[in-house]
Amino acid sequence: MGLNNTLSGLVTYPDLLLMDLPEDSPWQKPLSTIQRSGQKAAAIVQDLLSLTRQGMTEKQIVSLNQIVTEYLASPEYGHLLSNHSQVRVDVALDEKAFNTKGSPFHISKALMNLLHNACEANLVNGIVQIATQNRYFDRPHEAYERIEEGEYVVLSVADTGIGINQDDLTKIFEPFYSKKKLGRSGTGLGMTLIWSTVKDLGGFIDIQTEEGRGSTFSLYFPVTRDVADQTEMNYFLEDCRGTETVLVVDDVREQREIASVMLRKLGYGVQAVSSGEAAIERFESDKVDILLLDMIMEPGIDGCETYRRILADHPGQKAIIAIGFTESERVKEAQRLGAGEYVKKPYSLEVIARAIRRELDR
C-alpha cells in the first residue's frame, strides 16, 4: 500500500497539470512521459497484487462483448494503435454471445494483454482479430490444455505474426518469462495474469500457433444464463462536475491533498481529515454529501468501521471507498452497509470523478 501512495504523485499531479496547460506547451511531452511512467509502475504493483489475491475477487455478471466494446473505446487502446500503426484490428463479436461470471476489470486486463502481445507479434503489416463466440463440448476436448465438457463463451485474439515455438509455448505462462527486449514494454506478468484470471473463473485456455504464421489465443469462460443490469449510467468527465461537499478521509497527507485538489478541480467543496475518528467527530457538527473513505488507516479504526459508526447517526450517508489493492472482505462489508463502488490508488481524475458522480446520482 505504501508503494501505491508513493506512486500517486507521479500519476495524478501530471494529470492535473496537463489539464491547465495549452496544447502547444513545451511541458506537455515531459509531463505525459512522467505520467505514463507512473502508470506503468502502478500497473506492475496491481499485477503483483492480483496474483497474490487470486480467488478473492467478487464475481459479477459479465458480457464479453461489452468488455471488448468498452476497451476499444478506451485511451489505452488508442495508445496501443498509435504505437502499432502497421497493424489492422478486425472485430467479430457474436451478437448472441452468452454472459459469464467474473471480474470485468480482470477480464478486460486479459484482453489488453492479449492484444498487446498480438500487436507486437506483427513486426510487419499484419492483422489482429478479436472475436467472441459460444462453444459447447459434450465430452472433454483436447487442446493446449484439456477443456472439460460444458458450455462456454469464448474470447479469442488471433494474429498473423511471428508465432510461438514449442519451447516458448511450454513456458509462456511462467511469471516474468518474456522474449521481449528489456524495457520495450509490459511487466513480464501479462500471460501469468491471463492464466490466473481464466483459472479463477473456472475456465480454460487454448493456443493455436505456428512459427511464422501467427497465433490464436482462446479464453473459455463458463456460461451463465443470468442477465446483467443494464441501468448503470455512463458519464463523460464533463458530466462529473458538481458543487456538493466531499469529506476525504485518509491517514496519508499526500493522498488527502491529491484527492482534495482533484475534487476541487471538478467544483466540489472539499474537507479532509486524517482518521476515521476525526471523520466521526466532524459529523457531530457538520454533514457532507459524500465520503471518500480510505479503507486501511493506521493507527485507529478502518474505513468500514468509520462508515458503520457514521451510519448509526446518519442513515443513508453516501460513501465510496479508496483502496490500494483488490477488494477485500472489509470493502465488501462496507458495500453491504451501503457504500458505493471502490476506486483504486493511485487515483485517476477520470475514475474518481465518475465514481463520486455516479454515487451522488444513485
Structural description of this entry:
The chain is an alpha/beta fold. 42% of the residues lie in helices and 22% in strands. It is built from twelve helices and 14 strands. It has helices spanning 2-20, 28-52, 64-72, 75-83, 104-121, 166-171, 190-200, 253-265, 276-283, 303-313, 329-337, 349-361, and strands at 60-63, 87-93, 99-102, 126-137, 141-142, 146-147, 150-159, 204-210, 214-222, 245-249, 269-273, 290-294, 318-323, 342-344. Helix 11 links the parallel strand 13 and strand 14 (342-344).
Measured as a percent range, the helix fraction is: 40-55%
Strands side by side in the biggest sheet: 2-4-7-9-8
Largest sheet: 5 strands, mixed
Radius of gyration: 22 Å
Q: Catalogue the unreliable spans.
A: 180-188
Question: How many individual β-strands?
Answer: 14
- Portion of residues in beta strands equals 15-25%
Quote the distance from N terminus to C terminus.
Answer: 29 Å
Q: Mean pLDDT, as a whole number?
A: 83
Brief write-up:
By secondary structure, the protein is an alpha/beta fold. The chain has helices at residues 2-20, 28-52, 64-72, 75-83, 104-121, 166-171, 190-200, 253-265, 276-283, 303-313, 329-337, 349-361; strands at 60-63, 87-93, 99-102, 126-137, 141-142, 146-147, 150-159, 204-210, 214-222, 245-249, 269-273, 290-294, 318-323, 342-344.
